[in-house]
Amino acid sequence: MNRIFFCGDPHGRFVHIIEAVLAHRPAAIVLLGDVQTPEPLEVALRPILDRTEVWWIHGNHDTDSDADYDNLFGSALADHNLHGRVVEVAGVRIAGLGGIFRGQVWTPPYQPRYPSAEAFLAQCGKGNRWRGGLPRKHRSSIFPSDCKALLQEKADVLVSHEAPSCHSHGFRAIDELAFSLGTRMAYHGHHHEHVEYGEDEAQRLGFRPFSVGYCAIRDELGNIVRTTNVGEDL
């Protein structure tokens, strides 16, 4: 299998990713959200763009500011956003679900307040709109329609910013999505910690879950390429 690196929340730090790609030459990398690139993503990752494919999903902090949003969603790599679709990456079908659950929209297992971004926008005052559309903050909120778009798909791997239920702050909605997709593995970021889920969790869920911590990297088999502790000087 061609190597794929799954990269935990970089929060604007990319040296470790560039070094890992130059050292190991993976076929592709997938950023698991909270990218917060301080410049357009293609500029931040310029040293490796001719060495590997770059794919990503967004996290909650990628809508913190206009710059966070524009440098990711408006970058030359905007079409490599995996959110809400399945793409074959280095021979592996990967499904993506970016963003987080927010109470103003939907916090599973409770019923959603709004089924879609369009429904939210219809009830949103004009003064709350951003660039004529959804408020910037809620462009990183998960709507039921985001999950629904994937329910008819099949994939080998699910990447999400939110965690499945094996994490203490995870959600069964992620389990259900992964199961519906028929995935054998799922990778998540968001929580900035290294967690090793046991075989019992994999048997319960029907797929192997992997957490990828802050600025950490795992490969397509779940092996650790790099671990990082929050606060470590990168």
Structure notes:
The chain is α/β, with parallel strands linked by helices and 234 residues long. The protein has a single domain (4-226), classed as 4-Layer Sandwich (Purple Acid Phosphatase, chain A, domain 2). The protein has 7 helices and 10 strands. It has a 5-stranded mixed sheet, covered by helices on one side. The chain is globular. The model has no long low-confidence stretch (mean pLDDT 95).
What does the secondary structure layout of this molecule look like, with pairings?
Blueprint: E1 4-7, H1 15-24, E2 28-32, H2 41-44, E3 53-57, H3 66-73, E4 86-89, E5 92-97, H4 117-123, H5 144-148, E6 157-160, H6 172-181, E7 185-188, H7 199-205, E8 208-211, E9 217-218, E10 224-226
Parallel strand pairs: 1-2, 2-3, 5-6, 6-7, 7-8
Antiparallel strand pairs: 1-9, 4-5, 9-10
Organism: Rhodanobacter lycopersici
InterPro entries: Calcineurin-like_PHP, Metallo-depent_PP-like, P-Estase_HI0762_prd
Protein name: Metallophosphoesterase
Q: What is the number of strand segments?
A: 10
- Biggest β-sheet strands, sense, barrel: 5 strands, mixed
Helix content: 10-25%
Low-confidence stretches: none
Q: Taking all residues together, what is the mean pLDDT?
A: 95
Structural class: alpha/beta
Secondary-structure element series: EHEHEHEEHHEHEHEEE
CATH superfamily: Metallo-dependent phosphatases
The rough form would be described as globular
* Strand order in space, largest sheet: 3-2-1-9-10
β content, as a range? 15-25%
N-to-C terminal Cα separation, in Å?
A: 30 Å
What is the fold-level CATH name, i.e. the topology?
A: Purple Acid Phosphatase, chain A, domain 2
Give the total of domains: 1
The whole-angstrom Rg is 17 Å
CATH architecture: 4-Layer Sandwich
> What is the CATH class?
Alpha Beta
Number of separate helices: 7
